[in-house]
Amino acid sequence: MEVQVLSRPFLKMTIFKKSLIYKIAGFFISLETKEILKRITETLEEIFNAERVSIFRKKEDRNYLEFYTFSRGEDELKKIKIELSKGIVGWVYKNNRPLIVNDVSKSKMFYKGVDELTGFKTNSILAFPLGLKKRRYGVVEIINKKDGKFKRKDLKICELISPFVAIALENAALFEKIEEMFFGMIRSFAKAVEAKDPYTSGHVERVENLSYLLAKKVGLKGNELKNAKIAGILHDIGKIGIPDEILKKPKKLTKEEYEIIKKHVLYAKEILEPISEMKDIIPAIYYHHERYDGKGYPEGKKGEEIPLLARIISIVDAFDAMASDRPYRKALSAKKNTKRVFKK
Amino acid sequence: MEVQVLSRPFLKMTIFKKSLIYKIAGFFISLETKEILKRITETLEEIFNAERVSIFRKKEDRNYLEFYTFSRGEDELKKIKIELSKGIVGWVYKNNRPLIVNDVSKSKMFYKGVDELTGFKTNSILAFPLGLKKRRYGVVEIINKKDGKFKRKDLKICELISPFVAIALENAALFEKIEEMFFGMIRSFAKAVEAKDPYTSGHVERVENLSYLLAKKVGLKGNELKNAKIAGILHDIGKIGIPDEILKKPKKLTKEEYEIIKKHVLYAKEILEPISEMKDIIPAIYYHHERYDGKGYPEGKKGEEIPLLARIISIVDAFDAMASDRPYRKALSAKKNTKRVFKK
């Protein structure tokens, strides 16, 4: 027979192998460092039946290791700096070899500093270097085996896993670098536009932070939270299209001038529209001058017709404007301000 | 003994296992789709002793498969669209099961279209679905086993490899998406700034493209090529700090006004400086008005003191300016223009 169709969806491998390989695949399911560290530490705790896993990373231009750990049940990432020369971790990093210490109280190498900082009690350690080819990225420590001692055969699994941990963390670092570059860029541009408007010093930064906090408060998560930040940063970017003499006019604007100012939401839309990845951000910016009572611009949308992110930016934007001085009035107090924003 | 030090740097595993796992790790060593596809196809050709490997991907919002293949010894990626329902690939995708066809001439399922397009002669195929949990990303085809037939045991390796291929390609797609977003953003901002300067329509786009081409011509690669593009896009971004009335002045500028225009390289530096990832881009922009003879600005640097990327932008910028009409003169011919740029 020349055609072979497998009767079951894929085939059977030994359960251990299959589950291990799927677990490793899970390291790559995200490009966010925090998410990856969480997955790796949890996976290794499970595989080795250990109480805790800590990951020590050495960044390229630093001469110390950065220490990451997750406490069970907590979502918080602890970050501590460790000197390269210290403790079992330092030895493993320096010698690029794994090490098992089944009773740390009998080991002179053991450095108590981390336990003192974290309040955790270390008994036994399996530590292995993270690397790929000639590059060394750091060290993984598997701590307190629950059932007996770490054994040499455990190191086989470590060897298998080590390059994957290293690459997963490196990729996340690369991803975060370009994401940081993106955020840095839009912040800088927003500030450059802000610099043209003499009344708004620091406004962009405040709107970014407050939009993020308010979005979190109303339950947004992950990408939506990121979008709230991006929209907060870029909400006034369209002012780049408003002539300087109107933007910088120290007196009250005429009706015609105000109509021109209103166009900044349209200009923002035009600037962002060619970027397909901005499609969820544009409505948040385009509609951030709509009002819940329908008296806003550009379309006079009402209530929940206005996209949620636009409502968030709108509240934060108004709040910050009222909390700032203007040539024709002083800033409102926080209390008065809050009242007025929520009356609006 | 409570402390166990392994005498050799890490331990031995069977050579096959070790090399396979290292080969899989290689899929993740880059976040560039093209590089990853090349690695995956080459690795699978080697593992299965096959003549060719093709990867078919289904993007989320498309109802066809995109086909990628590398011809041996060529660096070119071929991209072809295939209907979801067609051929062995379509069957494997639809049924989410692997399939071995050791003589395609005897199979009614086989779709000749791809061979006709690529000029390649297919004899035998092992095809398996790319997926992870419930998501299906596409299909991998391993073509023309050089020594005999594909066997069921080959599918064990496919199963092991499948999730890694899927994740590696997904991560690259995610990375490219944010990279595209970054480029889209800086292009849009550059165009918004350009829109304030009535003499420069399309200038940014041309400088981006020409800078890239010239950088390639002088032998730059990878990140340096990307930097040439970024610097090309952003070279005039500092004009956001120049008052409209100077930028838009239809007559010749006074000496004082020209001094203000010159500040655009300083403003660009100030805008980009807070972004640490921009450190290689800033000199290219800051010095793009220096001249080889030392008569440029802002520092009067000479010859090779001027960073290479800045020299590239400078030539391209001058070339494009001379090739464009100005209110006070027509564009120069390509020949005259080239002469004048290289005399400069």
From TrEMBL, chains A, B:
InterPro entries: GAF (IPR003018), GAF-like_dom_sf (IPR029016), HD/PDEase_dom (IPR003607), HD_domain (IPR006674), HD_GYP_dom (IPR037522). CDD domains: HDc (cd00077). Residues 178-344 form the HD-GYP domain. Pfam families: GAF, HD_5. PROSITE patterns: HD, HD_GYP. Residues 200-322 form the HD domain. Transmembrane segments: none annotated. It comes from the Bacteria. This is HD domain-containing protein. It comes from candidate division WOR-3 bacterium.
